[in-house]
Amino acid sequence: MAERKNKVAGKVVLITGASSGIGAATALAFNSKGARVAIAARRKERLDQLSGKMQDALALQVDISREEEARQMVRDTIGYFGRIDVLINNAAQIIISPADTVNSEDLISAFRTNLIGPVTATREAMIQMKKQGAGQIINVGSPGFMMGIPFYSPYVCSKAAFCAWTRTIQAEWEGNGIMVSEYFPGYILTDSKPESRIGEVEQDLLMSSDQNWLSRKFTHARTPEDVAKQLVRLVEKPKILTYSGNAVKLGALISNIPKFRLSLAKQMARSAREKKPEI
C-alpha cells in the first residue's frame, strides 16, 4: 500500500497564542509533520522553551492586541521563511465578569485581542498569499457566543464579532485561492487562567456534577493535543467549518432553540454562583 502523502511538510505555519494550551500543542503537532513553524505570543520565556523542542522554529514575542505588532509578526514570518502558507488565529483574551459590571475597558481590550489583532494579521498575510496564489486562514472561534456563556460577556461578544468577520471573508474571498476555515473547539482544559473580575476562579467555574447529562456533555473538556491533531487535519483536508466533537456540534444546534439554550446556560450560571456566591 502506498504511503499517504504528507500535505503539511514544508508549509510555513504561523500560530498566535502559541506560548501555552492549544497554540503550543498545535505548534508541536505541525513541527512533527515537517512544517516550518512561526510561534507568536507575549511570553518570551515560554516561546523560547517551546522553540527549543522544535526544528527551525521562529519565535516572535508579540502582543496581538497592538496592530503594528500584529502586522510586523506576519512580515517577520515572511522575511524569515520567504512565504506564509497558513495563519492560525488562536490567541484570545478571556475576561470573567458579571454582565452588569462589565466596563468599556474590558470590552475594548477583548475586542483588540480577539478581533482587531486577528483581522490585522490576516489582512497582512493575505497580501503575501495572493502573490503566492494560495494560502489558508484558520480562525479559532468559539460556539459560546451562540449559547450565551454566563459571566464571559467580553469574550463571547468579541468572539461573536470574530465569527461574523470570518464568515464575511469566506464569502468575499471565495475563488481567490485563499481558504478561510473556522474551527470551534468548545471547552478545552489548559493551564491558562482567565482574567477574572470576581477573584481567582478555576476552569470548571461553570461545571457541576449535578447538572443534567446534556450540560455535562456540552462542558466536557478536551485536551489541547486533541485540538492540535484536528488543526493539522484541517490543513491536510481544508473545510469551511470544523467542530472539535459531536457535543460541540450538538450544543451549537441546541443554541438555536431558545428554551434549551436558556436551560443549559442557566445551569452554568447556577454552578458558577454555587462556587462564587458574591456574583
Short structural description:
With 279 residues, the protein is of the alpha/beta class. The protein has helices at residues 21-32, 44-51, 67-81, 104-132, 144-147, 153-172, 213-218, 224-236, 246-254, 258-275, and strands spanning 12-16, 36-41, 58-61, 86-89, 95-96, 135-140, 178-184, 195-196, 241-243. 48% of the residues lie in helices and 14% in strands.
SSE layout and pairing:
Blueprint: E1 12-16, H1 21-32, E2 36-41, H2 44-51, E3 58-61, H3 67-81, E4 86-89, E5 95-96, H4 104-132, E6 135-140, H5 144-147, H6 153-172, E7 178-184, E8 195-196, H7 213-218, H8 224-236, E9 241-243, H9 246-254, H10 258-275
Parallel strand pairs: 1-2, 1-4, 2-3, 4-6, 5-8, 6-7, 7-9
Helix pairs in contact: 1-8, 3-4, 4-6
Q: How many DSSP helices?
A: 10
User: Regions with pLDDT < 50 over 5+ consecutive residues?
Assistant: none
The strand line-up of the biggest sheet is 3-2-1-4-6-7-9
What best-fitting shape do the alpha-carbon axes yield?
A: globular
User: Count of DSSP E strands?
Assistant: 9
Please characterize this protein's 3D structure.
The protein has 279 residues and is α/β, with parallel strands linked by helices. It has a single domain (12-202, 221-246), classed as Rossmann fold, CATH 3.40.50.720. The chain is 48% helix and 14% strand. The protein is built from 10 helices and 9 strands. It has helices at 21-32, 44-51, 67-81, 104-132, 144-147, 153-172, 213-218, 224-236, 246-254, 258-275, and strands at residues 12-16, 36-41, 58-61, 86-89, 95-96, 135-140, 178-184, 195-196, 241-243. The strands form 2 sheets. The protein has a 7-stranded parallel β-sheet with strand order 3-2-1-4-6-7-9, sandwiched between helices. A two-stranded parallel ribbon has the order 5-8. Strand 2, helix 2 (44-51) and strand 3 (58-61) form a beta-alpha-beta unit. Helix 1 crosses helix 8 (224-236). The longest helix is centred in the middle third of the chain and has 29 residues, at 104-132. The chain is globular and about 55 Å long. The termini are far apart.
